[in-house]
Amino acid sequence: MFHEIDDKLHDECGVFGIFMQNPDTMTDAARTAFYGLYALQHRGQESAGIAVADDRHIGLHKGMGLVADVVKPYHIDNLRGHIAIGHVRYSTTGGSALVNAQPLVFHYLKGMVALSYNGNLVNTVELKKRLETYGSVFQTTTDTEVIANLLARYSQDDLEDALNKAMIDIKGAFALIIMTEDRMLGVRDQMGIRPLCIGNLHGDYILASESAALDTVGAEFVRDVNPGEVVVIDRKGLRSLQVINSPRRAHCIFEYIYFARPDSTIDGLNVNQARRELGRQLAREFPIAADMVIAVPDSGTAAALGYAEESGLPFEEGLMKNRYVGRTFIQPTQQMREMGVRLKLNAVAEVVRGKRLIMIDDSIVRGTTSKKIVQMLRNVGAQEVHMVVSSPPTKFPCYYGIDTSRREELIASTMDVDQICQYIGADSLHYISRAGMFKALGSEAEIFCDACFCGEYPAGAEGK
Asked: How much of the chain is in helix, strand and coil states, percent to nearest 5?
């Protein structure tokens, strides 16, 4: 599933949670969660929700749409509690429907539990069949409900023990926040594929997909949740359980290339700095005779600045973005589809006319958008358009929470670089080398998951 307008890969969702020891008002937790989700809106725009707990009960509000459209001030007034967890969703599996919106709230043997989840399991079908034989009934099509049923299955144990057992069963990539009436727990998969970090706000603990969300609510970054770790937050504070130790790390490389906000730092690596260094590496690998460097905004901007700095060429804003069209464009009409990329981008004719351009983007998925952008630049008089990409060719589907379920949708899986160049109509096309990508990120390949480039899946693949 790709969007008609931006033709980009999309992450599944973002999660946020806060445990307040002594809130000034019982709506402080929900209000903080609202702002935290607002900061994570780029990770999912199809649905949003907030659940709160007050030591006795869990309340919930969720709906389809953006955070500000779903959660209104009067909803926050009704979300009373000192613990809150939230979720923004982009559906990769399970489909876009209110029943799949999160957080999901369940009753089980020991009380109530709410879950906010980011990622994708590769053994969902197997687990679901096993649970159904034990009598489990499923109301949604999400992995989250599978995890909830596993917790219920082990509910004769304490929730922490049940979670430890569930983590042994599930395979794939996930960052999970769980809330009971009086506790909040954070969990990260054993290889750290999906991100999750810890913050502190005047003594209150926060869990979030990205550190930028901590900055937004005024919290201090404490650390990332370790792969295979469970953190438990209650009235006594925070404690940690290292449930699974894996010798392999596999942080999602697309967090640094495209998904995460540039002002986030994930597993010790600042996203903006990583993207700039990718651009510098591109300039070292592909010096091109040109007049200027431009970016496909906003995702290509940091890499374009890095390329310009390394090459000595000027950086110019040759393409302008319509800020009112986000990363997604929900249910476009046929007329809008025909307008295509012009709804989102416009070429600045006075800047690019008669110029030899180096155009930087973070990736090429289907190639349809790249083709339209190149043609747009030629239509306003660009002399040459050389496209340079800050990631290697995306050839393989992702099974870990990114919407590339069918390999045939990826242009690099069926065409070589010269064929793609001809298809998009560029004068030349260059992708960063895989070795150059790791060099730019300052780390070895073994700490990243880059299965979308190489086809090697560190946590297995669906059905395997």
From this structure: 35, 25, 40
Give the dihedral of Cα atoms 150, 189, 172, 447; nearest 10 deg.
-170
Residue 263 and residue 258: Cα distance in Å, rounded?
A: 12
Is residue 265 helix, strand or coil? strand
Q: Are 271 and 225 in contact (CB under 8 A)?
A: no
Topology, domain 266-454: Rossmann fold (3.40.50)
Handedness of CA 389, 393, 396, 400 (dihedral sign): negative
The catalytically annotated residue of 13, 398, 421, 449 is 13
> What does the DSSP assignment read for 330-372?
-S--HHHHHHGGGGTEEE-HHHHTT-EEEEEES--SSSHHHHH
**Token duo for residue 56:** 């006795």
Answer yes or no: are the C-beta atoms of 375 and 361 closer than 8 Å: no
CA distance 195 to 201: 20
335-374 pLDDT, tens digit each:
555 566 777 899 999 999 999 999 999 999 999 999 999 9
Per mean pLDDT, which range of 41-45, 87-91, 421-425 is the poorest?
87-91
Candidates 3.40.50.300, 3.40.190.10, 3.60.20.10, 3.40.50.2000; correct CATH number of 13-247? Answer: 3.60.20.10
Alpha-carbon gap, residue 287 to 108, rounded angstroms: 61
Task: Give the domain ranges of the chain.
Answer: 13-247, 266-454
Give DSSP secondary structure letters for 49-90.
EEEEE-SS-EEEEEEES-HHHH--HHHHHH---SEEEEEEE-
List Cβ<8 Å contacts ≥24 apart for 283-288.
283/307, 283/308, 283/309, 283/310, 283/311, 284/310, 284/436, 285/430, 285/432, 285/433, 285/436, 286/388, 286/430, 287/311, 288/358, 288/386, 288/388, 288/428, 288/430
Determine whether 13 is an active site residue: yes
Q: What is the pLDDT of residues 151-195, one digit of tens each?
A: 988 888 789 999 999 999 999 999 999 999 999 999 999 999 999
Instruction: Kindly report whether the global pTM for this prediction surpasses the value 0.90.
Output: yes
